[in-house]
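Q: Here's a chain of 406 amino acids. Please give me its 3D structure as C-alpha cells.
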Amino acid sequence: MQLNYIGNASLPSSSGRTIPVIDPSDGQVFDELQRSNAQDIDTAVRAARQCYDAVWSKLSAAERGRLLMRLSAKISEHAEELAMIEQRDCGKPTKQARADSAALVRYFEFYAGACDKFHGETIPYQDGYSVFTWREAHGVTGHIIPWNYPMQIFGRSVGGALAAGNVCVVKPAEDACLSLIRVAQLAAEVGFPAGAINIVTGYGHEVGDALARHEGIDHISFTGSPKVGTLIQQVAAERHCPVTLELGGKSPQIVFADADLDAVIPVVINAIVQNAGQTCSAGSRLLVDQAIYEPLLERLGKAFENLRVGPAAMDLDVGPLIRASQQQRVWDFLSDAHIANIPMVAQGQVVDEAPDTGFYQAPTLLRDVPVMHRLAQEEVFGPVLAAMSFRDEDHAVELANATQFG
C-alpha cells in the first residue's frame, strides 16, 4: 500500500480509505493509494509552511541549486526503477517510460542551474532615486499533476517552483501517483528538508478542490482539462491566489504540397500515437494540401496498418489507454464518426497477447472529417487522427484556427 509523503514521512490518510491502483495493460488492481481529504491537505500545507519559514527561505540560491543537482543525479541513478514504475502505473511502453524518467533528470538539472539566475531589473526614474524590481518566492505552492506525463510535468512544475525558492504540496492524478511518491522519497535521501516536497493522493473533487481552496497556498499550478482549469481559476480568484494553467488542445499538423512525404509519415504518426494519443499537444488534426491528399493518405494508411498495440512491457508502438472510462470516451468518438459516415482509412492492430481486460485502442486514421464535427473540434485524448484537405495557405490557416483552442 502506498502512503502519502508529508514532511519526509510516509503517512496514512486521515480518512482511512484507499483507492485501487489499476494496471492499464491488464485492468487488474496491483496496489492501493490513500484516499485523502481536506484534513490531509491541511497537514501537508502546514508542513510546507514550517519548512519554508524555518529552513527553505533561509537557503541561498546556490544552496538550493546544489540540492536540486543532487536530486537530478539521484533520479538518474534510479531512472530505470522510475521508468518501470511508470510503465505499469500509466501503461507506457518501456521506451516512452524511459524517456520520461530521462526528462525528469534534465528538468532538475536545468532548474539547479537556474536557481541563481532569477534576475530583477533597474528602472530609469527621477534624479536621486534608484528603482529596481526584486523577485521573491510565492511561499507554499500547490501543484495538481495529470496522469499522462506525471514525471515530466512534476519536473517542470515542481522543479521550477523549488528553484525560485518555493516549497510544494503536490496532488498527483489518482491514476498516476507511484513515480512521484518515489521521487519525493529520493529528494529526502539527498537532503531536502522535511516539508519541501509533499505528496497527497486522492480524488480531484476531494483533494484537488481542498488544495485550490486552502488559504495557505500562495500559488497554484494545474495541468489538465479546460473545464477543471476554469473551476480552479474561479476558486483561486476568490482569494486572489495566482494560478498557472496548462490545459487542452487540438493541435493541427499541416502538410503542404512540397513536403518530403518520407519525412512526413513518421512525424505525423508519432504526434498522434505517442502515449496512445493522451497528450495535450497531440497532433490530432491532419491538414493536407489537396494536391497530395490522396497519395499521402494512401501511404499514411499503410503505416497505420503496421502499428502494433499491446501491453506496456512488450514495448510496442502503442500501449493501453489509462483507464476504462478513457477507452469508452475514445469509442464514443469513433461511434459518432461512424454515425456521421466519416470514412476510416486504416487502423493499427492490437496484438493477440494483449489481455481482453486491458484498455486498448488501435490507432485510427479518419478522412474527410467535417471541420465542425466534434472529432475536429474536441480533444479525443486517444490515438485517433482526423484528416482533411485544404486549398491554399489561407484555407489551411483558417482550418487550423477553427477550434475553441485556436
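Q: Can you summarize the key feature?
A: The domain at 4-246 is CATH 3.40.605.10 (Aldehyde Dehydrogenase; Chain A, domain 1).
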